[in-house]
UniProtKB/TrEMBL annotation:
Keyword Transmembrane helix found: yes
Transposase IS4-like domain residues: 133-345
Residue intervals passing through the bilayer: 51-71
Record's protein name: IS4 family transposase
Species of the source: Micromonospora zhanjiangensis
SUPFAM superfamilies membership: Ribonuclease H-like
Keyword vocabulary terms for this entry: Membrane, Transmembrane, Transmembrane helix
PANTHER family membership: TRANSPOSASE INSG FOR INSERTION SEQUENCE ELEMENT IS4-RELATED (PTHR37529:SF1)
Domain Transposase IS4 N-terminal: 20-112
Length: 450
């Protein structure tokens, strides 16, 4: 009798997480996919537990949505809308042991299934038949624990260090939808160039990779070109490149490591009511047809490289709220980062589905914060469990996004600038102008001999 009672309780408690407790997120991450991953990674529970492996996966996703809460409070959010269904009340220790039993492999495998460009018919995600994608790296802070310190070192600073260990995360994103194509993370001793060589596995013909000056390495350029993808990468203006020929638009033909490339020297001026700022850019591209890909248009396109800065802001500020990753072991960090990337990808997929339901709507009009808050509400309200909620292709998150569209994007000159510092110790000084201006951008291709 005791065994039957336990089985019944576990089945009822686990069912909401498999049958729609996360609302639209469960549609985007169906329990059948999770079960297949658990089977493939051999993490399916061997006996009946209060916290089956499938439930722990959804717990990790919810933990990213509520990054400011401990896992016991995250669990309370998960079951808040399930009254009067019988649900377990696990201790913090039980939740920790369940995450440890699961390990990082299932979350890693789930990310491999979910990563990739979001499906959309929006014309703005393409540029002259190519999909612009962008690569860049960032730094994440992890918990200061003995286990983490064995793998992740503290960053040096003016006062002896940051206080917390850090790691380097590099990602490959689709510019139009900001969906994650691939990602990799390592200790800071691994540089962005080494991580870029790894991420090159996800580049394909028909993609156009945008990158900053850090990625202008000759070996990396050759590696990218070998994938069939094209590239548009900035390099130092002082870099000496041979001039093999001139194009009518002012660009010129050259070679990098034996690879024929086209070089564009552009002077970009941004004018506001407060004055003008001018900078010179040298871009290297494998797009050699100047009539199909004019130099001025390439210089304008390069601005989309900043899409990844916005994505990192959404990951580190909107989702994490600037907080340190909570896991206290390297395996836990692996599990948490992949859960974070999965959560971000699910939200981006829901946003792309929503904007795609209205022909001609630019995915840039979708608000990430709106989607994030809608996903949180889905969990708290237990959408699709208590009531017979019908979720269509747009879904509850998408409906909220469509009801709160952003205005057309204005020209940005300082993507990372914050208007109010979170800490007086992080403020950059009283003389920084944080006002918003209407800006006019002027691009001139420089035709002087290099």
């Amino acid at each position: 009798m005791d065994q039957i009672a336990i089985t019944r309780t576990v089945t009822v408690a686990a069912w909401p997480f498999a049958a729609g407790h996360l609302g639209e997120l469960t549609r985007l991450l169906p329990f059948e996919m999770i079960d297949e991953v658990l089977t493939a990674t051999r993490r399916t529970q061997q006996r009946i537990r209060l916290l089956p492996a499938r439930v722990v996966v959804y717990l990790l996703i919810a933990g990213c949505l509520f990054a400011d809460l401990g896992y016991q409070r995250v669990w309370s959010k998960l079951v808040a809308g399930l009254h009067p269904l019988p649900v377990p009340d696990p201790s913090g220790s039980a939740l920790r042991q369940a995450r440890q039993r699961l390990g990082p492999a299932p979350m890693r495998a789930l990310f491999e299934l979910l990563r990739g460009p979001a499906a959309t018919s929006a014309a703005t995600v393409w540029w002259r038949g190519l999909m612009p994608v962008v690569i860049d790296g960032t730094v994440l802070t992890v918990a200061d624990s003995p286990a983490n310190l064995l793998r992740y070192a503290k960053q040096r600073g003016n006062n002896g260090g940051s206080g917390y260990p850090t790691l380097r995360l590099s990602a490959l994103l689709a510019c139009g939808t900001r969906s994650v194509l691939d990602a990799v993370f390592d200790p800071l001793s691994t540089g962005e160039i080494a991580q870029a060589h790894h991420l090159a596995r996800s580049l394909r013909s028909g993609m156009l990779l945008l990158g900053d000056r850090n990625y202008a390495s000759a070996d990396l350029i050759t590696r990218i070109a070998a994938t069939g993808a094209d590239l548009l990468i900035r390099c130092k203006s002082s870099r000496k490149l041979p001039v093999l020929g001139r194009y009518p638009d002012g660009s010129w033909l050259s070679t990098v490591n034996g690879l024929r490339v086209r070089v564009v020297d552009a002077r970009i001026s941004i004018t506001t009511t407060s004055g003008s700022h001018t900078g010179d850019y040298r871009l290297i591209t494998t797009l050699l047809d100047a009539r199909r890909h004019p130099a001025g248009d390439l210089a304008r396109l390069y601005h989309q490289r900043w899409e990844i800065e916005t994505a990192y802001l959404e990951l580190k500020s909107s989702i994490l709220g600037g907080r340190v990753l909570r896991a206290r072991t390297p395996d836990g960090i692996d599990q948490e980062i992949h859960a974070l990337l999965i959560t971000y990808q699910l939200l981006r997929t829901a946003m792309a589905d929503a904007t795609d339901s209205r022909p001609g709507l630019d995915p840039d009009r979708a608000s990430f914060t709106t989607a994030l808050n809608a996903a949180r509400d889905q969990i708290i309200l237990a959408a699709g469990v208590i009531a017979d909620t019908v979720i269509d292709l747009v879904g509850a998150i998408g409906e909220r996004v469509l009801a709160n569209l952003l205005p057309d994007r204005r020209v940005r000159t300082k993507t990372r600038m914050i208007k109010r510092s979170n800490s007086k110790y992080q403020a950059r000084g009283p003389n920084i102008d944080r006002r918003t201006y209407k800006a006019t951008t002027n691009i001139d291709v420089i035709t002087n001999e290099p």
